[in-house]
Amino acid sequence: MEPIEVLGMVAGSISAITFLPQVIKTWRTKSAADISLLMFTFATISVILWLVYGIAKKSVPIIYTNSMVLLFSLIMLYFKFRYGKQQIPVAHEA
C-alpha cells in the first residue's frame, strides 16, 4: 500500500470514529429523541453514493471509510426508529 493510501485510511478511520461517541451514547441511554432523522438520512444517502464511487474507482480508502460510516449511520437510523420517541425524565430543580 502506498503512503498516500495509508494517509487516506488514517483520515477515513478518524472520520468514521467521529460517529462512534453518538452511537455509544444513544445505545447507553436508549434515547434518540434529540437525534436528527433528516441529518442521518442525508448522511446515509451520501455515504452510499461515496461507497459506489469508491467501488467504481477501486479506491480502498474511500471504500473502507464509507463502509465504516455507513455502518454507524445505519445503526443510528435503527436507534432513531427504535428509541426516537422515548424521553429520559429530567430532574427539575425547585
From TrEMBL:
Record bears the keyword Iron: no
Mainly localized where? membrane
Q: Which InterPro entries match?
A: PQ-loop_rpt, SemiSWEET
Q: How does it sit in the membrane?
A: Multi-pass membrane protein
Write one Gene Ontology MF term.
Answer: sugar transmembrane transporter activity
Q: Which residues cross the membrane?
A: 6-24, 36-56, 62-79
Q: Name one GO cellular component term.
A: membrane
Localization terms from the record: Membrane
- Coiled-coil region list: none
Q: Name one Pfam family in it.
A: PQ-loop
Q: Which UniProt keywords apply?
A: Membrane, Transmembrane, Transmembrane helix
Q: What NCBIfam families does the record point to?
A: SemiSWEET_2
Q: What is this protein called?
A: MtN3 and saliva related transmembrane protein
Recorded source organism is Flaviaesturariibacter aridisoli
